[in-house]
Write a structure and sequence with these properties.
299 residues; Rossmann fold; 7-stranded parallel beta sheet; 39% helix; NAD(P)-bd_dom_sf
Length: 299
């Protein structure tokens, strides 16, 4: 039986905590509000993870610290570095392994599938932050201070997941309304079911071979239209009507909430195909992506 710390109780963090507990591990989920999955074996702790000394005390005895935390999307350049610095420092202080939940923002657009060996060449604010967070963690690993790995997920699917599909498309599809999409609805993209991301985080935490590198999470390749059509079929909704948001739409919406400006910055990942190769994690850990039906079943 091992002790695991999971910082963050979004859809993936909660799924990760449940999986650790199902394996018989003792799990402590840390969020500012003390929220998280209320299941046997999981202790919920209310704590601001930027308070490094308090976080270190809460993590004493842990074998693994999983960082599944996220700040407000539009504040990443300012708020993510101090949070991630604190979590990394706490893992190092208590001698725990450090597993990060990441994404593919630090990659530029490419003509072929992205692998873990594709160079990180960030050219957006959020991409530069993601690259910085990984490089700092990797430097700590290479210095021998802590074992580090990262699981890089695509656009999330699944109940409660924070993603443009869940935010913009799914609710309108289920109501039979026109859905405005972030990007070209017919461009192939990489989606990640939250349970598959959680399975990858747990597998990495339990492996002796995961450390010192990043891994692409099990990937579902599909277009927004294909995902929307399948969701409608599963839920008995009318055939989806999709239309891409224009830059003008997003600019105008940005006057109501800052998150809309963020879609403009990351448009290169949604306007044309952006596909990820998950071969490494399949071969190393025997993990494969769930079916689209499984990813959409609970929505």
């Amino acid at each position: 039986m091992a002790e695991r710390i999971v910082v963050g109780a979004g859809a993936t963090g909660s799924a990760t905590a449940r999986r650790f507990a199902a394996n018989g591990d003792r799990v402590r989920v840390i969020t500012r509000s003390g929220s998280g999955p209320e299941v046997p074996g999981v202790e919920l702790v209310a704590l601001d993870a930027t308070r490094t000394d308090e976080l270190t005390a809460a993590a004493e005895g842990a074998a693994t610290v999983v960082n599944a935390a996220m700040t407000d999307y539009h504040t990443w350049p300012e708020t993510m570095p101090p949070l991630y610095d604190s979590i990394l420092a706490a893992a190092e202080r208590v001698g725990a392994d450090y597993v990060m939940l990441g994404n593919h923002y630090a990659y530029r657009e490419t003509d072929g599938p992205i692998t873990e060996r594709t160079p990180l060449e960030p050219h957006t604010r959020k991409g530069r932050v993601r690259a910085q967070l990984w490089r700092q963690a990797l430097a700590a690993h290479e210095a021998g201070r802590v074992r580090v790995t990262e699981i890089r997920a695509g656009e999330f699917l699944g109940p409660g997941a924070f993603s443009s599909f869940n935010f913009l498309v799914a609710p309108r599809i289920l109501r039979g309304e026109l859905a405005l999409t972030d990007g070209n609805p017919d461009a192939a993209n990489t989606f990640t079911f939250v349970e598959d991301a959680a399975a990858a985080l747990v597998a990495a935490a339990g492996s002796e071979n995961a450390w010192g590198r990043a891994w692409n999470a099990p990937a579902l390749t599909a277009t927004i239209r294909q995902v929307a059509d399948r969701l409608a079929d599963l839920k008995g909704a009318p055939r989806p009507r999709l239309e891409a948001l224009t830059e003008r739409d997003l600019t105008l919406l940005g006057f109501s909430a800052p998150i809309w400006h963020e879609f403009i910055e990351m448009a290169y990942m949604a306007d044309r195909p952006f596909v990820v190769d998950d071969r490494d994690i399949r071969e190393a850990f025997g993990l494969k992506a769930s079916s689209l039906d499984e990813a959409l079943a609970g929505m």
